[in-house]
From TrEMBL:
Transmembrane segments: none annotated. This is Transposase IS4-like domain-containing protein. One of its GO terms (molecular function) is DNA binding. It comes from Clostridium acetireducens DSM 10703. It holds the Pfam family DDE_Tnp_1. One of its GO terms (biological process) is DNA transposition. Residues 116-214 form the Transposase IS4-like domain.
Length: 216
């Protein structure tokens, strides 16, 4: 199966997960959401697909394009209505979708390796968040002379040869890179290992971290 066919099959698998009624039941935040009782024009699948579409223009332009060109619908959804509907969906839906597609990919495709190894890399970064009091309390902040600014620490486990994110995590700004890396490696082991070779930059090695790796 070639790369293009793998991509097409991956899209099919994603659609299968997204359109499964159990996916809705599991990741809507209340039982009344996305029913006639809930009274929303936006379907659960609309919200998932729109977010996966990666907004690049203004939110309203993207919404209009999505419903006119992708969904072939003349319904008008305001950005306020979308923001309200989005709050009805658990963010864990996207973690689950990533996990399911990754499981499918590694079990059903002849994925690329480097000299027989699945070549993986872990790295972290500090990300800027919307500067709300809620996010400052949850994730931490940096402070300058004028204000406190919300920040978070993020890390990802990446399959280099197959251009796949296997796992990622956003945590408190003060969380260390090694701690996040350990969490990602634990996740990787839960998902299944495939003769993996892990790469880190020079900031990661320590006696405790090496002991952790040797124990896996």
């Amino acid at each position: 199966m070639g790369k293009i066919n793998n991509f097409k099959e991956g899209i099919k698998e994603s659609n299968h997960v997204i359109n499964d009624i159990m996916f809705l039941y599991k990741f809507r935040l209340k039982e009344t959401y996305f029913t006639r009782m809930g009274g929303s024009k936006l379907k659960f699948t609309d919200i998932i697909l729109f977010i996966l579409n990666f907004v690049k223009k203004s939110l309203q332009i993207e919404l209009d394009d999505f419903f006119n060109k992708v969904q072939k619908s003349d319904v008008t959804i305001t950005k306020q209505a979308f923001s309200q509907a989005r709050r009805k969906v658990s963010p864990k839906a996207f973690i689950y979708l990533l996990e399911e597609v990754n499981k499918w990919f590694y079990k059903n495709t002849p994925f690329n390796t480097y000299r027989g190894y699945r070549l993986l890399a872990i790295d972290g970064t500090v990300i800027q968040l919307h500067n709300s009091a809620e996010l400052r309390e949850k994730f931490g902040y940096i402070e300058n002379q004028n204000a406190k600014v919300a920040r978070a620490q993020a890390s990802a486990l990446y399959d280099i040869e197959n251009d796949m994110i296997i796992a990622s995590k956003i945590d408190n700004y003060r969380t260390g890179e090694r701690e996040l890396a350990e969490n990602l490696i634990i996740k990787m082991c839960e998902y299944g290992t495939y003769n993996d070779l892990l790469l880190f930059d020079r900031g990661y090695p320590s006696r405790d971290f090496i002991n952790f790796l040797e124990g896996k």
